[in-house]
Design a protein that fits this description.
This protein has one domain. The protein is built from six helices and two strands. It has helices at residues 7-27, 47-56, 61-78, 81-89, 94-114, 122-145, and strands spanning 41-42, 120-121. By secondary structure, it is an all-alpha fold.
Length: 146
Amino acid sequence: MTFHIPNRSRILIASGYFSILFYWAFLARRRRLGKPECERLNLVPFKKSIALLSQHLALNFLNVYYFYAEPIGNIAIFTPFPFCTAFLLNAYNYKKLLFPGSIASLFIECTQYVLHIGVAGINDILLNTTGAFIGITIIKFIKRRK
């Protein structure tokens, strides 16, 4: 499967996406807040989401927002990742497109932890990889329709 997009446009699209991803992961305002050492790393999957779920039942707007914002945001930000990787590498092997997304997510989380930016967590890796998988599924769907 090839997308009929000129090479310069592919580079421009991928560069724009990766710039947005970099900003979102490292520079966004929410990243500036200092966290105590014990809160900088979360290795328990969906620990915060489970805690928010009990509060979610109270239908507090902020609790509802935070309950949905993290998973939707992490999935959405990584859905274009396979497209941009394919654009740059001109490679459309589905298995090879998932691996860079997972590794990029792991790299982002490790870098956030080392640089004391936000909270590094297993949730983000799982959700980002899910987003990359959804992107690959979209690529497969487009390929079947052609």
